[in-house]
Specification:
The chain contains 11 helices and no strands. By secondary structure, the protein is an all-alpha fold.
Length: 282
Amino acid sequence: MELPTRIYQKEQTLSFFKILKESLRDIRSSLFLARQLATRDITAQYRQSFLGILWAFITPLVTALVWIILNGSGAVRITDTGLPYPIFVISGTLLWAIITEAINSPISSTNGAKGILSKINFPKEALVVSGVFKLLFNALPKVLIMIIFMVIYGVSFQLSMLLFPVILLGAIFFGTTIGFFLTPIGMLYKDISKMISMGLKFLMYATPVVFAIPAEEGILKTLMELNPISPILVTARDFLVGSNPEYLSYFGIVIAICVPLFFIGLVLYRISIPIIVERMSA
């Protein structure tokens, strides 16, 4: 009797939606692992530090105080922001810190796990989720600082303040989406992380962090209005003080664009990280 012949070969086609489905499934199944990794990293971050978690308050607070002092002394002329300048600059620097941390989080979390990536088989998405957990933890003291300053400067409670966490999550979502696309090349070349850090420092001055969007037409106003981070900061401030959210529609457009980009970045991350790890361990 003639035996059937079967030919096994590697599948050459990659299904985007199949990979996305597997990635989302692994995210759900790796929540416990991600939480454990985040707890380990947070503990290690502050264990050998004299001031410990106070550094989460000190760094953005010092940045804000520098600008408050410069504005108060007249060394820097700040245009009208529509609200007390300390509230404006504190909210701007704290939100900017959260966004920049979200952009760098996928790279730092994945780079920090280089030692186990090539030795242990586990869902790589757990690293990104652990980064989000750390972001949320680090955001709490920043929000607390903001609340304290609002109380000091007499900002009364507004119902719109209850929507601020939505903007905060939107900021983290925006930063993480960008981070997905930067992670593969950032793991291969260390210069990328330095370039990102340097680029964000320049971008800060094209974003309404310490300066309001100019009222007069000009290059700076155009750059600030086109900057996709601007509606996040402006809408967050509007919700905090109960103002009419002028850039709410733009904020919605930015988040809507981030949704498909997030899924594309997630698939790119799932495909590229094993290849990069294999190349680095060769």
